[in-house]
UniProtKB/TrEMBL annotation:
The chain crosses the membrane at residues 21-39, 59-77, 84-102, 108-129, 149-175, 181-201, 232-251, 271-290, 302-321. This is MFS transporter. Keywords: Membrane, Transmembrane, Transmembrane helix. It comes from the Bacteria. It holds the Pfam family MFS_1. InterPro entries: MFS, MFS_trans_sf. Residues 410-462 are annotated as: Disordered. It comes from Streptomyces spirodelae. Residues 442-455 have a biased composition (Low complexity).
Length: 462
C-alpha cells in the first residue's frame, strides 16, 4: 500500500472511531437522562411544588411513557426521508432547549408538559443505536459478524453502567440546594453532544431508507417477483425479533418493582436487598468478555441457550427459601441476562438492519411490552410476593422457545448485486470504500431468489 493509501485508511479509521465514540456518548446520555430522576420523583415534586400525593408521580410516569411510545414511530417515519445522524442532531437540539426550560418550570403541570416534550425529542436519540451498529459494518463476512458483536457488547456495557451512573446523577441532583440547577444542567450535555454530532457525524455520509423503496420499485418495474417473495420472510423475521424482544424485556422487568421487598422478607436487610437487586448486572458484565467465544462456538444457538439459563436463574430465585439460594439464582440469571442481551440485539439488528423505520417499529413494540410489566407485577404480587419471579421465568422460557426458530437467510443475507463483468473488471482496482453503490437492485434469477436478502437489507441501503 502506498503512503497516500495508508494515510487515507488511517484517516477513515480515525473518523470511524470518533463517530462511534460520539454515538455511544449519545446513547449513554439517552439512558441516563431517561432514568436519572425517576427513582427520586416523589421527593423532587415535594421539594419543587409541595406535592406529596404519590398519584402525581404515577400519572407523570405513565404520560411520559405513552408520549415516548407515540413519538418513536414518528421518528422512524422521519428516517425514511432524513439521515439518522441528522435526526439525532435534531433530537439533541430540541432536548437542549427543553431541558433548560424544564429547570424553570413554575408548576407541576408545566413540568409535566415540558417532560412530555423532552421524552418525545429524546426518542430521536434511539436512532443512535442503529447508526452506531452501522459503523461496525454488516454481516456479509465473519469479520463483519465479529465487528457487529463487538458493537452490541459495547451497547450492553453502556446499558449496565448507565444504571449505576443514572442513580448517582439523580441522587446528586436531589442533594443540590437548588435541584432546578441540576435539571437544567442536562442542557449543557445536550449542547456539547449536539456540537460534536454536527462536527463529526455531519461530515459522514448518512443513510436513508428511501433507497430501499426505490430498489423495490425498480425491481417490480423489471418484471421480477423476487423482491415480493423475499418480503414475507423479512416481515416474519421482523415479527419474531419483536416477539423475542418483548418477551425478554418483559421478563427482565416484571420482577423488579417488588424484588427488594421479597429479598427483605428472606432476611437480606435493606442494604442486602439493594445488592441483590444489582447482582445480575454485575454478573452480566462479568460474562461479556466471553461472549465472542460463546458465539463462535454456539452460533445461533447462543440465543435460546442464554434465554434458557436466564429462565432457570429466575425460577431458582422464585423457589429459593433462603438467601444462599436467592444469591445463586440472581447470579445465574445475570449470566443469562448478559449473554441474552447480546444475542437478542444481534437477532434484532439482523432482522431490522441499521435503518430507522424497521428498528423503531420493533422498539415501539418492545416499549409497549414494557408498559405491561408493572401491571402484571402488581397483579401477581397480590397473590404471592414471589410470583412475579415465576411469571418472569415462564415468559423468558417462552422467549427461548420462540428463538428456536432460526431466521431464514432471506432475512439477513445481504444482496450481492449482479453486475456486468466488464463493469466488475473496471472497478477491481478501486477500493471498496470508494466504489459507487447501485441505486437499484437488478432482477435476480430464480436460482438465487431463495437465498437473497429482502429489498430492505442493509447492504442495499448502504
Amino acid at each position: 500500500m502506498t503512503a497516500v493509501g495508508k494515510d487515507g485508511a488511517s484517516a477513515r479509521g480515525g473518523s470511524a472511531r470518533r463517530a462511534k465514540s460520539v454515538l455511544l456518548s449519545v446513547i449513554g446520555l439517552h439512558l441516563v437522562a431517561e432514568t436519572a430522576l425517576t427513582p427520586f420523583l416523589p421527593q423532587l415534586f415535594e421539594r419543587l411544588y409541595g406535592i406529596e400525593d404519590p398519584e402525581a408521580t404515577g400519572l407523570y410516569i405513565w404520560i411520559c411513557r405513552i408520549a415516548g411510545l407515540a413519538a418513536l414511530p414518528l421518528w422512524g417515519l422521519a428516517a425514511r426521508r432524513w439521515s439518522l445522524h441528522g435526526l439525532v442532531l435534531a433530537g439533541l437540539c430540541g432536548s437542549a432547549v427543553l431541558d433548560l426550560l424544564l429547570g424553570l418550570a413554575p408548576s407541576y403541570a408545566a413540568y409535566l408538559v415540558l417532560s412530555t416534550l423532552i421524552v418525545s425529542t429524546n426518542s430521536a436519540l434511539l436512532l443512535a443505536y442503529p447508526a452506531f451498529i452501522a459503523e461496525h459494518g454488516d454481516e456479509s463476512s465473519q469479520d463483519g459478524v465479529r465487528a457487529r458483536l463487538t458493537g452490541i457488547c459495547s451497547l450492553v456495557v453502556v446499558f449496565h453502567l448507565s444504571v449505576v451512573v443514572s442513580t448517582m446523577v439523580g441522587a446528586g441532583v436531589l442533594a443540590l440546594p437548588e435541584p432546578r440547577v441540576g435539571i437544567s444542567a442536562f442542557a449543557v450535555l445536550d449542547t456539547l453532544l449536539a456540537v460534536l454530532t454536527y462536527r463529526i457525524l455531519g461530515k459522514r455520509p448518512g443513510t436513508r431508507t428511501g433507497r430501499a423503496g426505490e430498489a423495490l420499485t425498480q425491481t417490480r418495474r423489471d418484471g421480477t417477483s423476487a423482491a415480493g417473495t423475499r418480503r414475507l420472510p423479512w416481515l416474519m423475521a421482523l415479527a419474531y425479533a419483536a416477539l423475542i424482544g418483548i418477551a425478554f424485556d418483559f421478563s427482565a422487568n416484571v420482577a423488579r418493582p417488588f424484588f427488594t421487598k421479597f429479598a427483605e422478607d428472606l432476611g437480606s436487610g435493606s442494604v442486602g436487598s439493594g445488592v441483590l437487586f444489582f447482582l445480575p448486572s454485575v454478573s452480566a458484565l462479568a460474562v461479556l468478555p466471553v461472549v465472542r467465544r460463546c458465539h463462535d462456538v454456539l452460533g445461533d444457538r447462543l440465543l435460546p441457550l442464554s434465554l434458557t439459563v436466564g429462565a432457570a436463574g429466575l425460577a431458582w430465585s422464585w423457589l429459593a427459601g433462603a438467601l444462599p439460594g436467592l444469591v445463586g439464582g440472581r447470579l445465574l440469571f445475570g449470566v443469562g441476562l448478559g449473554l441474552g442481551q447480546v444475542a437478542v440485539e444481534l437477532r434484532m439488528f439482523r432482522a431490522t438492519g441499521t435503518e430507522g423505520p424497521a428498528f423503531t417499529a420493533v422498539e415501539t413494540a418492545r416499549s409497549a411490552g414494557l408498559l405491561a410489566a408493572p401491571i402484571a407485577a402488581t397483579a401477581a404480587v397480590s397473590h404471592d410476593l414471589a410470583l412475579p419471579l415465576a411469571v418472569a421465568a415462564a415468559v423468558q422460557a417462552l422467549a427461548a422457545a420462540l428463538s428456536l426458530r432460526r431466521p431464514r437467510s432471506t432475512a439477513s443475507s445481504p444482496v450481492q448485486p449482479i453486475a456486468d463483468r466488464s463493469e466488475d473488471a473496471a472497478t477491481t482496482a478501486v477500493p471498496p470504500q470508494s466504489r459507487p453503490k447501485p441505486d437499484t437492485v437488478p432482477a435476480l434469477a430464480s436460482a438465487t431468489a431463495s437465498t437473497a436478502a429482502p429489498a430492505h437489507s442493509e447492504e442495499i441501503h448502504r
